[in-house]
Amino acid sequence: MDTPSAPPSAGNNTNFTKGILILTIVPTTISASVAFLRFATRAWIVRGLGWDDYAMMMAICGTMIGMALDFVEVHYGFGRRKYYLTAHQLQEFQKYTYGEWIQTFATLMWTKVSICLFLLRIPFSKYLIRPLQAALVFLIVSNVILTILWIVQCQPVAKAWDSSLNGRCFSKGQKESIIFAQASKLETFHSS
C-alpha cells in the first residue's frame, strides 16, 4: 500500500489509538478472567475438566496473543490515518496485521471447537453426537486449509506486507473470501 499523496482535509489528523487500546484491553481482561475462573472452578472444585475447557483456554491464549499484537500494531500506526505514517510504519503495521489474521483464524477455530466439545457433553443420542463430531472435523480441517491459503497469499510470502518486492498476491476479493470463509464456515456447514 502506498501512502496517499494528498493530505486529508484539515482537522483529520485524528488518533484513535487510545480507543483501540481500551476496546482491546477491557473485553480481553474480562473474558480471560471469566474463562480462568470457570477453568479453576472446574479443575479444583468440580474436579471435572473436559476437552472443551482446554479448547476454551487455547482460545483465550489466542485472544491474549491478539491483544499483544494490537499493542504492536498501535505502535506502528493502528488508529491513525495512513497519510501520517512513514513507509516503515506502514510496512510493519501490515506485517503484524498479516500475522494477526493467522492468530484470529486459530482463535476462532478454538472457540468453535470448545463450543462443539461442550455440546458433545449434552446429547444422549447418536443423531445429535455425529453432526457435532462432523462439525469438529470440518472446523479443524477447514481451518488448516484456510490458514495455509492465508499464509501463501503472496509469493514470496513477505510481499503480503512489502509491496516493493517482486511477486504476485491474491486479489483483495480472494483475501476477503478467505476471511469470510474462516469466520462463517460453521454457519455455512450447519445451514447446508
Provide the helix percentage. 55-70%
Q: Proportion of β residues?
A: under 5%
* Number of discrete helical segments: 5
How would you describe the shape?
A: globular
Strand order of the largest sheet: 1-2
Index terms:
2 strands, 5 helices, 192 residues, mainly alpha, disordered C terminus
Account of the 3D structure:
The protein has five helices and two strands. The protein is an all-alpha fold. A two-stranded antiparallel ribbon has the order 1-2. The protein is globular.
Give the helix/strand layout.
Layout: H1 17-45, H2 51-75, H3 87-120, H4 126-151, E1 154-155, E2 168-169, H5 172-191
Helix pairs in contact: 1-2, 2-3, 3-4, 3-5, 4-5
Short description:
By secondary structure, this protein is an all-alpha fold.
